[in-house]
Amino acid sequence: MSLSHADEAAWYKHGMTSLSGVTMGETLRRLGPSLELTPMQQSAFVKPHSIMYQLDGKPRRWDMVESHPSVAVLLYHRQRQAVILVRQFRPAVYVSAMRAAEAAGEPKPPLSAGFTYELCAGIIDKPGLNLKQITREEIMEECGYDVPLDRIFPVTSYLSAIGISGSTQSIFAAEIDDSMAVRSGGGGLEDHGEAIEVLLLPVASIQPFIFDQSIGKSAGLLFSLMWLTERLEAHSGQLFPSTASAL
Ligand SMILES: Nc1ncnc2c1ncn2[C@@H]1O[C@H](COP(=O)(O)OP(=O)(O)O[C@H]2O[C@H](CO)[C@@H](O)[C@H](O)[C@H]2O)[C@@H](O)[C@H]1O
User: Fold this and answer.
1) Is 244's pLDDT higher than 50?
2) pLDDT tens-digit profile of 69-121?
3) Is 8 part of any domain?
4) Is residue 196 lining ligand 1, measured as CB closer than 6 Å?
5) What's the CATH number where 143 sits?
6) Which of 2, 41, 197, 236 has the most other CB atoms within 10 Å of its CB?
7) Domain residues for 116?
8) Which residue ranges traverse the bilayer (predicted)?
């Protein structure tokens, strides 16, 4: 796939810079040439069900997709006055964009329509590790920072895709600095097909980023950016004024 410098520059809006991992341009060159939908076979990640239940003694049915709970973490880089985001190609997001274009009678969107901005996150599918430990591993795998467990704080949790899944995502936050950067880390696990770009979003750009509807972003990221803004304002630019009484 041929991409111009102008194409690539347009993917770094709001003062975002690429920190590490696999850039969007590199991923686009690796994707393709085909993308097709097939009926789902056995999956280790999701299971579709119809739930048969009763309301007022009458039978009702609800269709759902069982999925793993997950963790997500807001990483605040105080030295650089920026937030760490991850960007990756999400096949489901691309297919939704494709369907919307079909319905509107528009041409197929470019593959760039399938890239999303997210918190560093991961599904909870590893037995024996608690939520914080899983979060720590995800930070290392996706973003390349080695953050001590006692520097990772719980924020809250929410239910994702409540109409079709309802799985819980637990949100954490951590302040990071360059001393925690691990040279070999970040970008995701190649053997899992992960190609993740680690981005820095300046704190000063958070508001325009949140309201830019041309940017595909997760609900957890939106919430966390609002939370961060409020906290920095309340504590004169510090996320955790005293580590001992973090939240
Ligand atoms: N549906 C699927 N089909 C095929 N392979 C799959 C799959 N889901 C996961 N995988 C495989 O499992 C690997 C690990 O996934 P992660 O734990 O990094 O979760 P992910 O970042 O995709 O979603 C995390 O981040 C997003 C955004 O916050 C949350 O919605 C989500 O719950 C959270 O786990 C993926 O790289 C992929 O190989």
Assistant:
1) no
2) 999 999 999 999 999 999 999 999 999 999 999 999 999 999 999 999 999 99
3) no
4) no
5) 3.90.79.10
6) 197
7) 15-24+65-236
8) none
What is the distance, to the nearest Å, from the Cα of residue 114 to the centroid of all Cα atoms in its chain?
Answer: 13
In 11-35, which positions are buried (b, 16+ CB within 10 angstroms) versus exposed (e)?
beebebebbbbbbbbebbeebeeee
Q: Count the domains in the chain.
A: 1
Q: How many helices (H) and strands (E) does the chain have?
A: 6, 10
Residue indicated by tokens 């049915």: 61
Whole-number Å distance between alpha carbons of 174 and 237: 14
| Section 219-233 average pLDDT | 97
Instruction: Give bridge partners of residue 246 from the DSSP assignment.
Output: none
Q: Is the CB of 86 under 6 A from ligand 1?
A: no
31 lines ligand 1 (CB under 6 A): no
pLDDT of res. 45: 96
CA of residue 44 to ligand 1 center, whole Å = 11
Task: Please say if the pLDDT value at position 155 is more than 80.
Answer: yes
What integer is the mean pLDDT of 212-233?
97
- pLDDT at residue 2, as a whole number: 72
Task: Indicate if ligand 1 lies below 6 Å from the C-beta of 95.
Answer: no
User: Is 1 inside any structural domain?
Assistant: no
Ligand 1 atom closest to the CA of 92, numbered from 1: 1
- Within a domain: residue 4? no
Alpha helices in the chain (DSSP H): 5-9, 24-30, 91-103, 131-138, 206-210, 219-234
- Give the sign of the dihedral formed by CA 220, CA 149, CA 234, CA 86: negative
Q: Is 155 left (phi over 0), alpha (psi -120 to 50) or beta?
A: alpha
What is the per-residue pLDDT for 243?
56
Atom of ligand 1 nearest to the CA of 167: 32
| Atom nearest to 88 CA in ligand 1 | 21
